[in-house]
Amino acid sequence: MSGTASGWIRRMTAIGYALGLALRLTHMLLVWHHDGAPTVFAGLLDQPGRLAMTFGHVGLFLLLWRHAAWPFAMALFARMGRMALTLY
């Protein structure tokens, strides 16, 4: 993996999470201070915050995928994948 691609993905992850968390926290506080009622400004912050968080999640996924951490991360879910969740 080239250093440039890794650096770009790390920046996308960091900026996505930083911006997303700030927007989502602001949204939560606006709704909280209005007793759960949405406001116009809170509505305008909601979707950009979700999009930024999505970029953070995608960046984290790509970093795990491209590095040796991916098999370890998936091994944590292996047993749950083998679990019988139905009764038939």
Give an account of the 3D structure:
The structure is a single chain. This protein has 88 residues and is mostly helical. 81% of the residues lie in helices and 0% in strands. It contains three helices and no strands. Helix 1 (3-33) runs antiparallel to helix 2 (40-66). The protein is flat and about 45 Å long. It starts with a helix and ends in a 7-residue tail after the last helix.
Short description:
By secondary structure, the protein is mainly α.
Write the layout of secondary structure elements.
Elements: H1 3-33, H2 40-66, H3 69-81
How much of the residues is beta strand, in percent? under 5%
Mean pLDDT, nearest integer? 85
Number of helices: 3
* Secondary structural class: mainly alpha
Strand count, sense and closure of the main sheet? none
Order of helix and strand elements from N to C terminus: HHH
Record keyword descriptors for this entry:
single chain, 0% strand
